[in-house]
Amino acid sequence: MTPSTNPTRRATRTGPFPRALGCAESTPRYPGGPPHPALRVDEPGELIAALPAMLGFVPERSLVVAVLHEVAGGAAEAIEAVVRFDLDVATDIRLLDEFAACLGSICLREEATGVLAVFVEDRAEFEGEEVARTAELIDVLAQDGIAVRGVWSVPAIAAGERYRSVFGVVGTGMVADPTSSIVAVSQVLEGKQIRGSRQEMTALLVPDDLLCARVRAQLAPADARYRGGLAAATRAGSAIAYQRRALEWVLWQIADTASGAPRAARELARLAATLRDRPIRDAVYGLAVGDHAEAAERLWAQLARATPGADRAEAAALLGFSAYLRGDGPFAGVALAAAVEADPEHAMAVLLETSLQTGLRPERLRGLALCGHRIAADLGVGIGPITR
Predict the structure, then answer these.
(1) Tens digits of per-residue pLDDT, 114-137?
(2) Under a CB-based contact definition with an 8 Å cutoff, are residues 164 and 152 in contact?
(3) What is the spatial distance between Cα 344 and Cα 192, in angstroms, rounded to a whole number?
(4) CB 299 within 8 A of CB 263
(5) Rounded to an integer, what distance in angstroms lies between the CA atom of residue 298 and that of residue 269?
(6) In a designed cystine with 52, which of 58, 296, 300, 383 is the match (CB 3.0 to 4.6 A)?
(7) Residues in a beta bridge with 151
(8) Beta strand pairing status for 162-167 and 147-154?
C-alpha cells in the first residue's frame, strides 16, 4: 500500500481532456537552468502510454494518479507528480480510503487543481470494481476540494491495449506504443532508464547470500583495522588526515566502479567498515548532486547486496537518497524500503522513506547533500562540482 511518488515532466492536456497538458521540468535537474521544451499529450491513450516513462517502469496491477497543477496563469494544467498505488495488496476496496488519504495529502501540498487516474488491472475478478473505487476516490478527494477530472481502466500498458473510461470522459480507445511516446523518447535522450517492471528494480537489491557470507567473514577484521587506525591517529592528533585518506579511498572505489568492475569481498568489507565512521558516511551523501552520482549508486547497490543489517541499511539509504534527488521516486522507494527492513532503527532511512511517502519534493532534501560537500571540504577533500 506504499505509494511510489515521482515528480516528473509536466504535461499539458488537450483534446478529450477537460482542459488543455504542456510539459516542463517540475524539479529542474540543473538548478537555475532553462526549462525543457514543452511536451504535449493529446488524448487518454497517449497519457496512459506515457506513464512508464513518468514512473520509470511499466506499472502492473496499479492505480496510477497524475496530480495536476495550474500553469500559465491558470490557462492550462500540468502534471506535477505521478503517484502509484499497488492494487495487488488492495483486494479489499475499503483500503482505497487509505490510498485517497495519502493522495489527498500530496494534492494539498502541491496545491493541486485536480487529478487524472488510471487503473492498470488485468484480473477478470476485479472487472467493474473500478467504478466503486472511483466513486470512493471522488468522495474522499472532494472533501479537500480536489476534482477527479478523468479515470480510465486498462488491463496492461502496451501498444494496442484497449482502455475504457470509468469516469469523466465517455468512450474507449487504444493505448499508443509506450516505447515511442514523446515522453519516453525525451526520458531516454536524457539518459533515464525505463524498466520493464517494478520487479526489475527490486532485483537490483536482492541479497547475494554467497557474497554476504564472504563479506561477513572479513567485516569484523576490517572494522577493527579501521577503528584501531582511527584511534591511533586521534592520539597522534592526525584524525582528520586519517579520515581524509579514508574518504579518498572511498572515492577511488567509486571511480573504479564506474569502469564496471565489481568490488571484491575484501573491498566491500573495508567499505562497510569505513562508512561506519559518521563523517565519512555524511560526506558521501554529497555525491548525489554531482557527476559521480551514477557510479556511487552502483557501488551502494553492490554493498547493499553484500551486507546484512545496519551495513545493508546504510548502503541502501545512500542509494535511495541519490535516486530520490534525481527524481526516481519508485526506485528510491524500493531502496529505502530495503534499508528500513534491514534496520528499522536506521534514522536516516526512516526519515527519507517517510519524506518520500508523503510526497516531499526532492529539492527539499538538497541541503543534506550540500552538507556532505561541506563535511568533505572540512576533511580537505573535494568530491566534485554540484551539477544536479
Answers:
(1) 888 899 998 877 777 777 777 777
(2) yes
(3) 31
(4) yes
(5) 16
(6) 58
(7) 117, 167
(8) antiparallel
Q: Is the pLDDT of residue 66 over 60?
A: yes
327 occurs within a structural domain: yes
Higher pLDDT, 168 or 51: 51
- Residue 105 confidence (pLDDT) above 70: yes
Burial category of 127 from C-beta neighbours within 10 Å (exposed 0-12, middle 13-18, buried 19 and up): exposed
Give yes or no for a contact between 52 and 120, defined as CB atoms under 8 angstroms apart. no
Q: State pTM to two decimals.
A: 0.76
- Which region among 32-36, 79-83, 156-160, 243-247 has the lowest average model confidence (pLDDT)? 32-36
Query: Residues 293-307, buried b or exposed e (16+ Cβ, 10 A)?
Result: bebbbbbbbbbbbbb
**Contact by Cβ (8 Å): 21, 77:** yes
Residue 43 vs residues 14, 23, 63, 140, 385: alpha-carbon distances, Å:
7, 14, 19, 26, 41
Could you identify the residue written with the cell 546484512?
308
**Cα 314 to Cα 342: distance, rounded to the nearest angstrom:** 9
Q: Which of 169, 195, 221 is the last residue of a domain?
A: 195
Do residues 158 and 90 share a domain? yes
d(CA 176, CA 180): 8
The answer to whether residues 256 and 176 belong to one domain is no
The span from the CA of 348 to the CA of 268, in Å, is: 21
pLDDT given for residue 88 in this prediction: 72
Q: Which domain holds residue 176?
A: 4-195
CA angle 253, 257, 260 (to 5 degrees): 155
91 with 240, same domain: the answer is no
Instruction: Provide φ and ψ at 382, rounded to 5°.
Output: -95, 130
Q: Give per-residue pLDDT as tens, 229-239.
A: 999 999 999 99
> Across the strands, what pairs with 172?
164
- In this structure, what are the phi and psi dihedrals at residue 164, rounded to the nearest 5 degrees? -135, 150
pLDDT tens digit string along 337-383? 999 999 999 999 999 998 888 778 888 899 999 999 999 999 999 99
Nine cell digits for residue 317: 539509504
Q: Report helix angle 309-325 to 293-306, nearest 10.
A: 150
Instruction: Please give the tally of structural domains in the chain.
Output: 2
| Nearest C-alpha neighbor of 2 from the set 304, 332, 321 | 332
DSSP state of 287: G
The dihedrals phi and psi of 113, each to the nearest 5 degrees, come to -100, -15
